[in-house]
Here is the input.
Amino acid sequence: MNVERGSLPSSFLSGAREGFISFLPLSVGLVPWALVMGMAMASTGFTPLQAMGMNIIVFAGTAQLGTLPLIAAEAPLWLIVVTALALNLRFVIFSAALAPGFRGVGTAKRWLAGHLLTDGVFATCLDKMLHTDDPHWRLGYYLAPAVWSWLLWQVFALIGIYTAGFIPKQWSLEFMATIALIVLLVPMARVRPMLIAALVGGASATLLRNMPLRLGVVVAICAGIAAGFAAEHWEHKARKS
Amino acid sequence: MNYDGSLWLIFILIGLATTLPRASFIVLGSRVTLPSVLQRALRYAPAAALAAIVAPDVLVVGGQIDVLNPKLAAAGVAVATASLWRNPWLPFIAGMSALHAVRYLVGS
Here is the structure.
């Protein structure tokens, strides 16, 4: 069953509306992040065309910020690519978790959905994507926040490119991105195994921060998952006995 | 610094390195199914990943763990407002205010 061409089914639109509404407040966090990204690319010496080219082709904040210093230092190509890959490895996990939510959706739309996947969209959409039957509704619920993120990312990066140097650094606008991640995390951590997964993930990433290529983040995610899973198992056993 | 045409090759390769992990399972879909144990375990991925990104950012200052820094205080305020009230804008207002208030108080 594929979404037909030309006419958008009403369930696609109602899914899109709901996805957009639940994501809108979180998307504020993208604004300073995109501004900072634009400023960083401009101060690396990219022309506006090159900077927007990177922003559109790559569309991945951490990978873009992480590879900029390497590009500026004329690091070997393989190191740049491996770094980008390591910074985005967590998305293999996200992609696998979301995959069942795309049953009934065509391949081209899956590629588009994959390219547009971000941390915020993942955290917003996972639950509803896995617990809704209608593929049109699910695709709408996913694409509305995803496309909105893309638009914000491009527009505010462009503004950042041209305003680099005007916004005082001490405003620390980039901290809004951290707050956005906290806003996503808090409701998840209301369930005890999730809280344990978060605590172990956070502590491991802090302790392993000096691992090369930021692999510590990947190891920490795995440790957090294992801890959460173990906690769930243990709670289940405790309830039975 | 001036960049030549190879910059675009770099962008395309970084683009592949970031899009392929994201698209992987979404595109493969039902052709590759993960065992249900793994699927249950993966439910913990978002919480673990978000914490793994946030924690070092608010706990580490200049390479050292510092539990008395303005960012951590602001993060604490953001967590508290997000747990107590449903208003989604409040953590941003309270968190940013806390960050600047604490910085002002400690004079940095």
